[in-house]
Fold this protein.
Amino acid sequence: MVAPDHYNFNLFNSLILGGIVQGLLFGVVVASSKKYRDTGTLLLAALIVAFSLNNLQYYVADAHLVRLRYLYGITWTPLQLLLGPLVYFYGLKLLFPEKSIPRKTIIGLLLPFALGWLAITYVKATRTYLEAKMDYLYLEALLEFISNVLATFAVSKLLWLTHKAERDAESFGVSIVLQKLQWFRNILITFLILCVVWLVVIVLMVLSIEPDGMWYVIWLSLSVMIYWLGHIGIYKYGVLEERKKIRSHTLNRSSVTVIDRYKNDYVSRFEDLLINKKYFLNPDLTLDNIAEELNLSKSHLSRIINKEMKTTFPEYMNELRVKEAKFYLRHPDFGNYTLVAIGLEAGFASKTSFNNTFKKVTGMTPSEYKNSEIETEPSAQSFV
């Protein structure tokens, strides 16, 4: 071991150590919880654990906790080569949860890790540390470069697949829950930028140009991004599962009762689309969409709603969505569900719009309504 006065503890590697501990705990919690027993979440946990263990290798070297000859000669494993593949596998399950990951894809992306491990094992077994010191340095740089290429490929392909998934998604279907993927796209774009900077740092280090503090910055930035992906990914998974259960209940319960007092055929068809076919559950629904379905102009349909129904399209949509949210806020089966899941399944685009609209219509926030002493909403609601 290195003498204590040679230890290198600083703010950067202390933050990295904190992330390592949280990452390993994250993996244990996800792997041991029945709530998260899903292929996608298990892949996410594997990503966080592999990244944390790789960070641990670099941490003990950077903090001088062990001599490099012991690290490289005994314990070093090229876990960085798993980063890109695991991000890609998780992304595939996030975008296409019903599809299996092709075996060829798994083998092709994990092959570099297997070859890297074999190369490191060969050097460990055949040469002493002093003999292989330069081999280790060049091998590490090569593996970092390959890891960067894999990560760049994974992120670029996932960005394209994310765009394709959103483009191919149903516009008005309610049989499945469609995810909002902006959060995932933002993480991927950040990751891609970091990959470019990471590659520059690798090249500079191979050229023996030490970028002052840049290695710490990229190391810490990648750690924040990966751990944030783990946190938000698990949170989104929990919300998605709640939404699926709410949606299942929505489709199975009796449709909203509509009292037909309007003689205008367009109004009847308008209400059939919004209520019976549940178009109002789509947060992206616009008056243009409905007008196109009814073969009317937007202005004509707007006049019909104003004259026949004595309201406006946004006000009517808000009324439907608030009444739907009230039902779930009062339903005992969803008492522990997040307000985000309830708001999204009621047709609101975000938690903020849910809170603001609900309070504007009812005078209370969703949480205040949920905890208030008001008679439980009936199982079937009437709109007249």
User: Anything to note?
Assistant: The CA atoms of residues 212 and 231 lie 31 Å apart. The longest strand covers residues 257-258. The two ends are 80 Å apart (CA to CA).
